[in-house]
Design brief:
Layout: H1 8-22, H2 27-40, E1 45-53, E2 56-63, E3 74-76, H3 80-88, E4 92-94, E5 116-124, E6 127-136, H4 144-162, E7 181-184, E8 186-189, E9 192-199, H5 214-238, H6 243-256, H7 259-270, H8 275-291, H9 295-316, E10 328-332, H10 337-342, E11 347-352, H11 360-368, E12 372-374, H12 379-382, E13 388-392, E14 397-400, H13 404-426, E15 441-446, H14 454-458, E16 463-467, H15 470-473, H16 481-494, E17 500-503, H17 531-536, H18 538-552, E18 557-564, H19 567-586, E19 595-601, H20 604-607, H21 611-616, E20 619-623, H22 624-632, H23 639-642, H24 650-665, E21 669-673, H25 680-688, E22 693-696, H26 701-709, H27 713-725, H28 732-741
Parallel strand pairs: 9-10, 10-11, 11-12, 15-16, 15-22, 16-17, 17-18, 18-19, 19-20, 20-21, 21-22
Antiparallel strand pairs: 1-2, 1-6, 2-3, 4-5, 5-6, 7-14, 8-12, 9-13, 13-14
Length: about 750
């Protein structure tokens, strides 16, 4: 669609800018705008509808309709012609409004006398803000130039709405980015914190969308696009021989050199927009197209979205994150482990729009013991850096710009948590022995060198699981053997004589190395991962085993292989380690003082392995996260099903009991490692079923030890058995009732 040849839209935008400068805020400003647009477009009616919430529109200003309907008339998105514009995010242009499908008569507005209707969405970067409408009694179709002019005005209105230009009375007129907003997401890591938003990708704010000098703005745009194209060409030349990377960048380059993309932005500049406003208008249109596109096209339009962001940063000079402030809570659409680790331990919490409970970011957040909320949809659009935010990882919610009442209640929660931590500190050095004399070892999980300082302060008796894959996930190439040996040696040193159990590389499924070709698998959680990768591609496994042997340098060594599904896999993996032991001895390197080789039991099949497996393994670690999802056939990345099944289900506890019994018969040490080990009630039940070693995040050791010290495990076992005999599906209600009585 071409811009109006007589620059009518530019004149209209200049008048609109003058109104914005002269008129008071709030309702007066809205009223002046609808008067101006109606006069400029020679229509009897102009109305502005703004979103009260995601699902509801409210008539906030009108010229031509009944003024008593303002702040009274409301409609759902999709309801009537106005609601249809909002839902489809596209204009509706008709000469016969009452006869158009979807029309709904609102008697309080008096609109029945107007035949012609033109409505355009007021939106910014895919976010619906409202609808701008003009109507006339004359039955006529609005021209392409008129539609274009109204779209340009709507784009400027969107920018003004973002900047809080329509503040005043009425709930729908509160300024954006100043209201309190509650985001309900998914719990990624427990805990609660108060801080300020730090955006991983800062928003670009366009303070002046209107320009009087199209030539100057056009030159700015061309200069920025030339720089952008040079940067893309540079990316392509640096891709080297990587054909897949080249293919992605070639698609990126195609958009950067698109003449139609540049032409549309130049037309918007000729209509009266600044260069950055023109880029954002085209980006908003692309986002709207993206919603209904097929997956392939949506992926390509994402490239265009990324290009637009780069161009906006060049034009405005914005987008630099700056230094991480005190009390920062990172807010991002998604983030990789390497990017997250770059922030170090400066963050108090993380809130992501996307992500999953098994993602790399979740692993790092758990290692740091900071609250993490996932799938908080819309937060990157709403939040601004510096906004106050409360993160409740226990509930999976985030309060953005909370009011005093919410802040006060949250403060009480934080104070109670602090008091509990003080209580736990008093029992830190106490051995965990239940009331009936049962000794339980409490170990911590780790994956970063930064985790190890918390070992002495947590009260843990060692590291029950050190995840070695994080050192692979955060690099752009395979780490060298010497690097790994130095790192592992540092871990052993930091443990100060306490045992450390190293798990060999657990990749695949949701953990894909940046330098490893992703496997196109229909169900990656059940596919080529962990020990299966190590046995099929033994080069990396051998290198890691050599690094581990050299790191121990004569000290006691504990190593376990992940995702063992049958005895033969364990025996084959152990044979690899035996060969490396002989090799290291032949080279004159010191061998471990003692060597314990174990397996992670994460698949139900291994619970039924031959007795020989339990006799051959020095120890078994139950990997509760994977075992639970496979036992219930419930993907732990799927929020619809993962919470459907209770860890304290009698069938799952019976499986745990069977594993403990088989390990006892073969005198094999067994532990439970996973999120559930760090939940006090679950840990209590595991101990009652015979588990005497639990491994969890450091912050959970205090609460778990606190409940176990006061427990009679024999009594708890009898409560569980009574619930099981009564035919209960879960023992949780019975155990909770027992604890309340206690």
């Amino acid at each position: 669609m071409s811009a109006p040849k007589d620059s009518d839209s530019r004149k209209l935008l200049r008048r609109l800018q003058a109104v914005m400068a002269e008129a008071a805020e709030g309702q007066e400003r809205l009223d002046r705008i609808v008067d101006l647009v109606a006069t400029s477009m020679a229509t009897e009616v102009c109305s502005i509808y703004l979103h009260r919430d995601e699902a509801t529109l409210e008539l906030c200003a009108t010229r031509g309709l009944n003024p008593d309907a303002v702040h009274v008339t409301r409609m759902r998105v999709g309801e009537g012609l106005v609601g249809g514009v909002a839902r489809r995010r596209a204009p509706v242009n008709t000469a016969d409004a009452p006869g158009t499908k979807g029309f709904r008569y609102m008697p309080e507005t008096g609109e029945e006398v107007f035949s012609s209707f033109l409505g355009v969405p007021v939106q910014r970067l895919g976010e619906r803000l409202g609808v701008l409408v003009v109507q006339s009694k004359e039955a006529r179709q609005f021209t392409e130039d008129e539609v274009y002019a109204l779209e340009v005005v709507a784009m400027v209105l969107a920018e003004m709405t973002e900047l809080g230009a329509f503040t005043g009375e009425g709930e729908a007129l509160k300024p954006r980015h100043r209201q309190q907003v509650l985001f309900k997401g998914v719990m990624g890591q427990e805990g609660a914190t108060e801080g300020v938003v730090f955006l991983h990708d800062p928003r670009v704010v366009i303070s002046n969308p209107v320009s009087d000098d199209p030539e100057k703005e056009g030159a700015r745009l061309v200069e920025a696009v030339d720089k952008l194209r040079l940067s893309v060409d540079r990316m392509l030349s640096q891709a080297g021989g990587d054909s897949e990377q080249k293919e992605v960048i070639e698609a990126f380059r195609m958009f950067a050199y698109s003449r139609s993309w540049l032409r549309r932005m130049e037309e918007d500049i000729n209509a009266g927009l600044t260069a950055e406003a023109a880029v954002e208008k085209e980006q908003t249109a692309a986002r709207a197209r993206m919603r209904d596109a097929d997956p392939y096209l949506r992926e390509r339009l994402t490239d265009l979205d990324d290009l637009s962001n780069r161009l906006l940063r060049m034009l405005t000079g914005q987008g630099d994150r700056g230094t991480v402030p005190e009390g920062a809570v990172l807010v991002a659409r998604n983030i990789g482990p390497g990017e997250l680790l770059e922030y170090g331990r400066k963050l108090k919490g993380v809130v992501l729009e996307e992500g999953s409970v098994g993602s790399h970011a979740a692993i790092v957040a758990r290692a740091w013991a900071i609250p993490l909320v996932l799938q908080a949809q819309g937060i990157t659009t709403e939040a601004l850096s510096g906004d106050p935010i409360l993160v409740d990882g226990d509930q999976g919610i985030a309060h953005l710009r909370p009011d005093d009442m919410v802040r006060s209640a949250f403060g009480e929660k934080l104070a109670m948590a602090q008091q509990a931590q003080q209580r736990y500190a008093s029992i830190r050095d106490t051995k965990c022995v239940s009331e009936d004399g049962q000794r339980i070892e409490l170990m911590m999980n780790a994956g970063l060198m930064a985790d190890l300082p918390s070992l002495p302060t947590s009260g843990a008796e060692g590291v029950g699981l050190f995840r070695t894959e994080l050192q692979f996930l955060t690099r752009n190439k395979v780490p060298r053997r010497g690097e790994l040996a130095t790192l592992y040696s540092g871990v052993i040193d930091a443990a100060q004589g306490l045992p450390v159990v190293f798990r060999t590389l657990d990749i695949g499924s949701d953990k894909v190395l940046p330098y490893m070709k992703a496997q196109d698998e229909p169900n990656p959680a059940l596919g080529w991962r962990a020990i299966r990768v190590g046995l099929d591609k033994p080069g990396v496994m051998r290198m890691q085993l050599q690094a581990l042997l050299r790191a121990h340098d004569g000290r006691d060594m504990n190593i376990m292989f992940p995702f063992i599904a049958q005895m033969e896999e364990f025996l084959e993996a152990r044979a690899h380690l035996t060969r490396e032991l002989h090799r290291e001895a032949s080279l004159g390197h010191k061998l471990p003082g003692t060597l314990r080789i174990g397996a992670m039991l994460e698949t139900p099949s291994l619970a039924f392995a031959p007795r020989r497996f339990f006799e051959e393994a020095d120890f078994i670690s139950i990997g509760g996260n994977d075992l639970k999802q496979f036992f219930f056939a419930a993907d732990r990345e799927n929020e619809r099903v993962r919470r459907r099944y209770d860890t304290l289900n009698v069938s799952f506890l019976s499986l745990i009991e069977k594993i403990v019994t088989r390990c006892t018969q073969s005198d094999t040490h067994v532990s439970f490692c996973g999120e559930d080990a760090g939940r006090p009630v679950e840990a209590l039940c595991f101990a009652a079923m015979g588990l005497r070693c639990l491994s969890m995040r450091p912050a959970s050791i205090g609460p778990v030890k606190n409940i176990l010290l006061k427990a009679d495990l024999g009594e708890v076992r009898r409560v569980i058995e009574a619930a099981r005999d009564a035919g209960d599906q879960s023992v949780r209600p019975a155990v909770m009732e027992y604890l309340r009585r206690r």
